[in-house]
Amino acid sequence: MFQVNDNYQKLPGSYLFSTIGKKVNAYAQANPDRQIIRLGIGDVTQPLAPAIIQALHRAVDEMGNAETFRGYAPDLGYEFLRSAIVENDYRARGCEIATDEIFVSDGAKSDSGNIQEIFSLDNRIAVCDPVYPVYVDSNVMAGRTGTYDAQKEMWSDVIYMPCTMENGFVPEFPKETPDVIYLCLPNNPTGTTITKEQLQSWVDYANKAGAVIIYDAAYEAYISEDHVAHSIYECEGAKTCAIELKSFSKNAGFTGVRLGYTVVPKELKCGEVSLNAMWARRHGTKFNGAPYIVQRAGEAVYSAEGKAQLKEQVAYYMRNAAAIREGLEDAGYTVFGGVNAPYIWLKTPKGMTSWEFFDYLLEQANVVGTPGSGFGPSGEGYFRLTAFGSYENTVAALERIRKL
Length: 404
Ligand SMILES: Cc1ncc(COP(=O)(O)O)c(C=O)c1O
Prior knowledge:
Blueprint: H1 7-10, H2 16-30, E1 37-38, H3 50-63, H4 79-90, E2 102-105, H5 108-114, E3 125-129, H6 134-142, E4 148-149, E5 154-155, E6 158-162, E7 180-184, H7 196-209, E8 212-216, E9 242-247, H8 249-252, E10 260-263, E11 269-270, E12 273-274, H9 275-286, H10 292-300, H11 304-330, E13 335-337, E14 343-347, H12 354-365, E15 367-368, E16 370-371, E17 382-386, H13 391-403
Parallel strand pairs: 1-15, 3-6, 3-7, 7-8, 8-9
Antiparallel strand pairs: 2-10, 4-5, 9-10, 11-12, 13-14, 14-17, 16-17
Helix pairs in contact: 3-10, 4-10, 5-6, 11-13
The structure holds pyridoxal-5'-phosphate.
Pyridoxal-5'-phosphate (PLP) is lined by residues 42, 107-109, 112, 132, 184, 188, 216, 218, 247, 249, 255, 260.
């Protein structure tokens, strides 16, 4: 008789987005005359930039021609894309990363879920709380998280690093020493980040503790402040302790196109064992490459036209972020984020829980956001709005909230 991986049975239901969907649908059916504005989803809405569309068209044509047709992509990704990444995302910022330290993938969700595979099941993980749920859930599936306390919504073997307004959303070094530290900066959901100096102290801490940092920089393109690092490799010593995950989803609108990459420096070792070699082996065995046409589209992100067009796209979303921030502040809310990330994190008013505020906003303003408690226990009492809607809808939503 076969047995299943019991760890999957331990996963508490991920009701966040399905509960939101159900509540919104029920409200819409009961109130068909109301126009609901959705500022809940973390998905982009602007179309792909023209430079990317042109690159896609060209690549599609190449695939229709025997001379230029491409089959399986190289394991690590095409050289043209990895070189563009090295030049633009690293060398331009003073970081020396080699092309064979870049692993092109189909996005940061897969990479952030898969990366735990190369670590021992005995390793203790530390996560910011609240945070993108994939880090904890993928470790639950692997059997690394112990038992779940439904009351506290916490796993016995996970080290939680609360990020709240009390500590300025800056994770503190935990009392117990972790082996694997997940840092998502700028953070989803809080939209906050830390300074380069603070990141340097995490790098120093990890090197000293013999820990590895999984650095998820999916929102790097939204950083507007000079004292914030765009890559963890801007910090001294990061190559011996950090893996960096990047996505083309939020900087270039690839959520439906799918492209990302992971950096595993060759200097990152556990004794004599190279993590770069392990990840190369894993990638080669379990992944058959991002599509050629998508990698050509990724290359266009780094062209002069691509860069200019995407700068405008990011600015479009950040104009929304500023409108949300200012609108909420005017209305008396306590607001965080929205400066280096497309997320705005607000303190729920009058001691409401995250879900109470969700209902209140849906019913009174017909605006949908995301309850903070869905991202971890320390998210209770907070609420996330995203800047990924249209400007018109964003302004209209804020107008409604202001009138409450
Ligand atoms: C922090 C973080 N990492 C990764 C992802 C997923 O990125 P991708 O679309 O590249 O899989 C998301 C998506 O919302 C995210 O918020």
